[in-house]
Amino acid sequence: MPAQPLNRICYVEDDEDIQKIVRMALERIGKMTVEVIGDPMLAIEAIKAFKPELVMLDWMMPGMDGPTLFRKMKEVPEVRDLPVVFITAKASQRELNELRALGAAGTISKPFSPKDLPVQLRAIWQSLP
Amino acid sequence: MIPRSAAPSPAVLGRGSDPRDGADPQRVLADRVEQLYSQMPLGIVATLAIGGIATYELWDQRTRDLVLFWWGLVLLVTAARAALYFGYRSSKDKLPEAAQWLRWLGISALANGVNWGFAGAVFFPSHTDEQQVFLAFLLAGIASAGIPTYAASWPMFALYAGAIVLPFTYVLGTFGNRLFAEIAVLVPVFWAANVAIAYRLNQVFYSGYRLRHAYGRLTEDYTALNKRLEQQLVELDEAQRQVEASGRKLALFAERAPIAVLELDAEGRIQQINHAAENLFGWTSNELVEKNAPVKFLIRPEFHADFDAQWQQLIASRAPVAHLRIGNSRRDGLEVVCEWNVTPLVNTEGGVVGVIAQGQDITRQLEAEQLKKEFTSTLSHELRTPLTSIIGSLQLINSGVLGELDNDVAELIGVAERNSQRLLDLINDILDIEKIESGKLTLEPELLTLDELVGESLVLNKGFAERFQVRYEPRGTLLPVQVMADRKRLLQVMTNLLSNAAKFSPAGEAVEVSMDDLGMRVRIGVHDHGPGIPENFRSRIFGRFAQADSSATRLKGGTGLGLAICKRLIELMDGRIGYADREGGGTVFFFELPKHTAA
To answer: Domain ranges in chain B?
Structure first.
C-alpha cells in the first residue's frame, strides 16, 4: 500500500462529456486533482509534465487506443512505473485479464457510477504494493 | 412384368432320381398294415369254415379228444385274431403305431400257421389214406391262400406257411414211405417258391404304396407352391404399386420443393434440375441438359478448387455432405452464396450412380447475419457511451455535490436516472442473449464457495431491496458448498432472481434465500411473497421478452429477458433452473448446480 493517499490523477479520454463527468466526480466527490487529456497522441508528454500518482485510460480512442498507449508508456522511463487503470465499455473478461497480465492496476467498466468512482479508484490504489 | 402362370419347373419339384423316395416311410408302412388287416375278416371266416370241415372229416372215436382239442385251439386263436382285428379297427394311433400292429399281426399269423401245422403233424399219420389226401390237399390250399392274404408282408407269409408245412414235412419224411419221403423233399421247394412269389408280390405292393404317397406329397407340395407363388405375385404387385406411387411422390416433392434440387451423374454433369433451381440460376433444366453442362458451370471460378476437393471426397466416401457453402453464379451474372446438402446415390454394388444436390440461396441470410453483427456492435459501443454520460450526469446531480435540489427537480432527475438505467439494462440483456444464442459467450469457471457468493449477492443487491422496501434474508444455514462456475455470471443470475423477487413482493416482506444439499447437486432458492405466476404465463416464463403483465414493466422496470438469460447461463454451467409455488403464497425460483468434487 502506497504511503500517501491518492491525490493526483491523469485521465486520457476523447469523449468530452465523459471527461467532464469524471473530472467532476473526482474533484467534487473524491477531492482529487485531475488532469484530463483529450488526445492520446499527446498523452505521454502531458503525463510527464503533470506527474500524476495514477493514470486512467479510456480503451477506445481515435488515433491510438488505450492498450497501445499503455504499451507505449511502458517504453518511457518517467511514466513506465505509474499505475494504470482502464475504463472501458467493451472488454471481454479475457481482454481484461490480458491487460492485468501486462501490468494494469485495475479496470473499471463503463458505464460507471460517478458517485462510486473515487471509492473504486482508492480501493485500487490501496491494493497496490 | 413377371408371367403370372409360370409353370413350376421339375427342378423345383424333384426330390431325387426316384420319385418314390419322396414317400414318407411311416405312411407306406401304415398302408401296408392296413392292407394286411383288411384281409383278416376273410381269413377268419375261411379258417372257421375250413377248420369246421376238417373237424368233421377227421372225426372218429380214436382221435376224438385230440380233434376236439385242435378245434378248440383253432377257435381260441381265431377269437384272438378277431379281437386283434377289432382292436386295430378301433385304434386311433394306426399311423404312429403301425410297426406294433404289424408285429401283433405277425404273431397271429404264426399262431394260425402253427394250428394248421399241428393238424398236419398230428392227424396225418393217424388217419386213413383218403383222409391223408384230404389233409394234404387242405394244407396245400391253406398255405397257398396265405399268399394274397399276407401279400403286403412276405416275411409274414414265410412265417405262416413255414409253420404249416414244416411239421408236415417232418411227418412225411419220417413216415417210412418212399413216395412220402419224395414229397417231403418237394414240400419245402414249393414253400420256397411260394415265398418267392409272395416276395415279388410284396415288392409290387410296396412300390405301389410308395408311389401313392410320393404322388400325394408331390400334389401337396405343388398346391402349396402354387399358393405361395400366387401370394408372392400379389405382394409383388402391391410393392410395385407402392414403389410407383412413392416415385411419383418423390418427383413431385423435388419438383415443387422451395429449395433447388439438382440431379447430377457420377461425373458431375447436370441431368435435371427442378423449378426452384431454374428460378435460382436462370437456366431451364433442358438448356443445361442440352449444354451437357457440368455442375461447375453454376459455380464461381474462385470456388472451383474447393468444389473439386469436396466432390472427390464425396465420390470416394459415398457419404452425404451437409451445409456445404458454395458461391454460385446466375445466368444474369449475379453472384449468390448457397448452402448445399449433397447426397450420392449408390447402387447395390456400392458404385456411385448419381448425386442429388439440394441447395438454398443464403446470400440474404448472410447479409442479415452481418447486419445483425454490426448492429450488435453498434448497440454495444455507440449506445453505451452516451448512456455513460447521461447516467453519470444524473447521478452527479442526484448525489448532491452540486448543491441541494428542489424536491420536484430531484424527483424528475430520479425518473430520468432510473429510466436511463433501464435502457442500459435492456442493452446489456440484449447483448447477453445475443452472445449466448450465437454461442459466443464463453464462461470462465472457477472454484466458488456458494455461501460466500450468495452472501455477496445479497450485499450487492441491497439497493434493490431498499428501493422496493423488502429485506433479503438467508433462510436456514447457507452451506459452504463448492461449485465450478463463472463468478460474474452466477452473480448476474442471483441479481436477476433477487431483483425479480423484490419487485414482486409487497413492501415490508422478506425475500428469503435458501440452500439445499441434494447429494450430487446443490439447490439455491429465492422465495418471494408475490402474487404467484399466472397459469397462462407459466409456459413462457423462461422465454424472451416474457412479462406476465406488461404494466409491471412500466411500474417496476425489467426487460423481460432476465429469466431467459438466467436459464441459458445456468444451463451453460450444467445446471437447471425452475420455479415452484411457495407454500402460503408467492413463488420460489431455484437453480441447481453440480457440486464440485475433487477429481
So the answer is: 22-211, 257-361, 369-437, 445-594
